[in-house]
Amino acid sequence: MKLFLPIALALACIALVIALIVTKQGDRAQHDADAGAMVDLSNRLTSAQSQVAMRDGTILTYSNRLDESLSASMAFSNQLLEAQSAIVSGKEQITNLSRQVAEAELQNQTLGRRVMNLTNQIARGTNEIALLEASLTQTNRDLVQAGKDYVLLENRFRMNVAERTVVERKFNNPMELQAQIKKLKKNPAGVISTDSIYAGLNVVVSSNGSCHVMAPN
Questions:
Q1: 202-206, long-range: CB within 8 Å, 24+ apart, which pairs?
Q2: What 3-state class would DSSP assign to 204?
Q3: How far apart are CA 134 and CA 148, in angstroms?
Q4: 27-42 pLDDT per residue, tens
Q5: Which tens digits make up the pLDDT trace of 133-145?
Q6: CA-based nearest residue to 157, from 90, 214, 217, 106
Q7: Are the C-beta atoms of 187 and 131 separated by less than 8 Å?
Q8: Using alpha carbons only, what angle is made at residue 208 by residues 202 and 213, rounded to the nearest 5 degrees?
Q9: d(Cα 14, Cα 2) in Å, to the nearest integer?
Q10: Which of 49, 124, 140, 146 is the most buried (most CB within 10 A)?
């Protein structure tokens, strides 16, 4: 009985030592595992920090790009507003130009009618001038003919005056009168009437006995 108790204690101690050894090894393995896990976590943390830093850089880049995009959008918006204003102004100018073109067309139509009227007036004036020129030409011809007739009439008048003067002088000269009477006695003429006396002389005799020479044909 006394021998069994030390053996039991020894076995208990051995078992305790073995348990301690196993526990220590387990703790060391756990420690190694925990250390490995911590290293892995540290690596993951470093990687995560790197990724976060990269993402921060990417976010910053995107932020800068976003700012640039916002600036570009603002500029584009301003350009769009300016373009819209230019379009509105262009539409107003087109409307004004269309109104001016319509007014110009109306003025052209009015001017065309005036030009047509003026052309007609010019044509009528040209015809009237042509008729007037023809009338002037005929008048000149008539004046020339009248001048010729006047010259002929004047010459005829001078001849008639001269002949009458010669006859009158012969009639007032007794010697010429006696010679004419002798000529008529030798060569008696036929019956002499008033019409036969003035025949072929183009003379008009009035009721009072006066006479005047007619214009030659």
A1: 202/156
A2: strand
A3: 21
A4: 677 777 777 777 777 7
A5: 888 889 888 888 8
A6: 214
A7: no
A8: 20
A9: 19
A10: 146
